[in-house]
UniProtKB/TrEMBL annotation:
Pfam families, sorted: Amidohydro_1
PANTHER family found in the cross-reference section: ALPHA-D-RIBOSE 1-METHYLPHOSPHONATE 5-TRIPHOSPHATE DIPHOSPHATASE (PTHR43135:SF3)
Signal peptide range: 1-21
GO terms of molecular function: hydrolase activity, acting on carbon-nitrogen (but not peptide) bonds
Organism of origin: Chitinophaga dinghuensis
InterPro entries (UniProt xref): Amidohydro-rel, Metal-dep_hydrolase_composite, Metal_Hydrolase, Metallo-dep_Hydrolase
Keywords of the record: Hydrolase, Signal
Every Amidohydrolase-related domain range: 349-410
UniProt-recorded name of the protein: Imidazolonepropionase-like amidohydrolase
SUPFAM superfamilies linked: Composite domain of metallo-dependent hydrolases (SSF51338), Metallo-dependent hydrolases (SSF51556)
Hydrolase as UniProt keyword: yes
Source superkingdom: Bacteria
Amino acid sequence: MKKQHIIFTAALAMLISKGQAQETVSPAPAQQKPVYLTNATIHVGNGQVITNGTIGFEKGKIIAVGANVNAAAGATVYDLKGQHVYPGVIAPETNLGLVEFESVRATRDEREVGEINPSIRSLIAYNTDSKVINTLRSNGILLAGITPQGGIISGTSSVVQLDAWNWEDAAYKADNALHLFIPRMMPAGAGGGGRRNRSEDGGNNAMEMVENVRAFFREAKAYLGESKHTATNLKYEAMRRLFNKEQKLFIHAELEKEIMIAVDFAREFNVDVVIVGGTDSWRVTDLLKANNIAVILSQPHSLPVMQDDDVDQPYKTPALLQKAGILYCLSNEGFWQQRNLGFEAGTAATYGLTKEEALSAITINAAKILGVDKLTGTLENGKDANIAVSNGDMLDMKSSVITQAFIQGREIDLNNKQKQLYEKYQQKYGLKK
């Protein structure tokens, strides 16, 4: 019976995949000659805006940005006629490429068996052929932090660029962070606003689970402090890069008490901590600032966790962190929701941020937190040409239409299944011009 179930599930996954596989989008070839985008409004990503500007790039790197830039001889020149140019948006925390259909187990590879799995690498499970990737690129999202889930210590995430043949090609920064999920510090059903819950009975045994993880950290540090071992422990070995500060510790925590536990981890083990989720981060900005802890705000378009919070608190939190001088960025849970990241930044811009501050929250801030800011995040000389071109304001759902996008200088195909279906039924009903 079990064998029949496995065969049925695999067959179902194949049928769904065939039904979904409308478009064929191949990775773009390497940039062959210089490209210049002219007569554009250039949003650098660091707060600077250049009107009627030009940006040039060659061999995948930006070589010129400004209002008085002349195109090199033999270069490809695009006259954008007042369109807007932005750095590629970065989705810092997502299971994109690890999940294709949430209802089909055979297409889900985002979690591993067990509670403590520091040696798990999400990168090697990343599926570059996911059809969801193309929908993100169409909205200007060009890089993503691929994050494992499940258990307390879920494994390492990696930064990928979204135009690749395989995971090796996609890797932008491999294994940049280890992920720890703090159990919810409240009884089940006592609130949560639909937020991720890592403990089914968090009100009863959450602290016990935290202490178990703390003990594991202590044992791993003691193991790594020994000059030689009688036996190799792979889980302890996987913690070496964290304690060497070659990795960051991304702690998924929502409530004030959970964030305080995360700060304790940073202090006790002397590791670089980033809060992921951070619903209550606005309440403890002094603590975060004093300990130099950044925040990835998840799911900004949502209800507040606590019933006593203002109903629009998730919209206001980015501005409160900005005012407090906390490094933060915006993210979404899941994979398909990431396509709305720019519009959620636009919402934050109506609740206290400027438009350029909101743009930074999904570009350079995310790049700094992920450790790739020397490569991307702003449109500056020497950085990778990760660029999105929009007819209108990329943070405005009404006016944003991404017309071109470049990843490391390669002009990528912005086609996707939804666009093909739109054109198909336009043709069917005689609406296509």
